[in-house]
Amino acid sequence: MISTDARTMIEATLPVVAAHIEEITANFYPRMFAEHPELLSDLFNRTNQKSGSQSTVLAGSIAAFATLQLDYDAAAQRGIIERISHKHASLGIIADQYPIVHKHLFAAIVEVLGDAVTPEVAAAWDELYWEMANVLIGRENELYAQAGVTAGQVWRTVRIVERDQVSPDAVSFTLASVDGDPLPDFVPGQYVSVQVPLEDGANQIRQYSLTGRVGDPTWRFSVKLDGEVSTWLHEHAFEGDDLSVSTPFGDLTLPDDGGPLLLASAGIGCTPMIGLLHHLVATGDTRPVQVMHADRSRARQPHRGELGRLVAQLPGATLYQWYEHGVSAEPTTRIGLIDLADVPVDPSSTALVCGPTGFMSSVRDALVDRSLSAERIQFEAFGGTR
C-alpha cells in the first residue's frame, strides 16, 4: 500500500494524469525503444506498437491501478496483477527491466505535463510506480517458482511432431521435447509464448493457447493466419522443425468451486476452450456447462468437429453456435451475430470469454443484462496481432 501523503497527492493529480495518460504512454515507448531497440525487435509486440494498442493497454493499467489505491479493492487489483504477471512471465520479464521502464516513463510524464510535475507530484507517482512494480515482481517470481524455472528462464527448444489443418486458415502444431522426455504439465486454459526469427532479424513473440490434454507428453496449439508471427509459422514451421517456446502461463483457468460454467468464444478464440473441455472430459466432470461459439461460417470454423465431440462427451454440456453466413442446421445453431436473448443463463455461472475485443464486450454486456455479475466474467483477448 502507498503512503497517506502519496495517496492524497495522487487523488489530487489523477484527473490531470488520466487526461494525458495516453499521450504519456505514446511518448514513453519511442523513448525506451530509442535507447533499447532490442526490446522492440525481440520482446514487445511491434504490431501492437504500430497500431497504438499497446499504449492504450499500458495507460489503462496505470490508471486502473492508481484508482484502486484511492478506493482499495483487493479483488480488482488481484485481477489486474494476475493478467499482467502471467503475460510478463510468459515473456521472461525480470526485475532488472523495471528500472528501464521507470526511467523512460517518468521522462515522458515530465515532458507531457511540464511544470505540473512538482517534486511532490513526482515523488507520489514514483511511489505508486514502485508499488505496482514490486507487486508484479513478487507475483512473477511466484509464477516462476511454481513453474520450476529460474526467474526469466522460461524458454526451451521443442520439436514439431505433427501439423494439422484445422480450418482453411488455421493450423495446429503438436510439440515434443527434443530429448524425448515429456513436456511439463500445464493448467487447462493456459498458453505458451512462441518466438520466431523474422526476415528483418527481429525475434518476435506471440502467445497461443494450449489445446491438448493435461498429462500428455506433448503440447498442442493452433494458429490462425493473421499477423507476421502467425504468417511465419504457417509458411516456415513443419514436422521436424524446432521452435523456441516458453513455459505455460495464463490465468483464464477453471474455477475450483465446481459451479456451472459458461464458455464463450469467437473464431480462433475457441482454443483455450478446447483445452478446458479436454480437461472436463478427462476428469468426468458432470457440472452444467454452456459452450457458446461464434464464427464467420461452419466452413471456416477452427476445431469445429473437435468442439462438438468434446461437448457431446459431457453429460451436463450444451453447445450453442452462431454463424454470420450459412443455414441453421441444428436447434442450437443460429445465423447472425451472437445474441443471448433466448439462451438461458444461470446467474451463478462463471463465464470464461475469449475472442476479439468487440465480441468480448458484447458478450459481457449481454451476460450482465442476464444478471451474471461482472466479477464472475473472465476474459482472454484474441486480436489481429498474431
Automatic annotation (TrEMBL):
Ranges for domain Globin: 1-141
Q: What is its EC number?
A: 1.14.12.17
**Catalysed conversion reaction:** 2 nitric oxide + NADPH + 2 O2 = 2 nitrate + NADP(+) + H(+); 2 nitric oxide + NADH + 2 O2 = 2 nitrate + NAD(+) + H(+)
Q: InterPro entries attached here?
A: FAD-bd_FR_type, FNR_nucleotide-bd, Globin, Globin-like_sf, Globin/Proto, OxRdtase_FAD/NAD-bd, Riboflavin_synthase-like_b-brl
Instruction: Read off the PROSITE patterns from this record.
Output: FAD_FR, GLOBIN
What the entry lists under SUPFAM superfamilies is as follows: Ferredoxin reductase-like, C-terminal NADP-linked domain, Globin-like, Riboflavin synthase domain-like
Q: Does the keyword Hydrolase apply?
A: no
Q: Where is the FAD-binding FR-type domain?
A: 153-255
Pfam families (UniProt xref): Globin, NAD_binding_1
> What are the alphabetically sorted keywords of the record?
Heme, Iron, Metal-binding, NAD, Oxygen transport, Transport
Q: Which family does it belong to?
A: In the C-terminal section; belongs to the flavoprotein pyridine nucleotide cytochrome reductase family. Belongs to the globin family.
Protein name per the record? nitric oxide dioxygenase
The species this protein was found in: Gordonia liuliyuniae
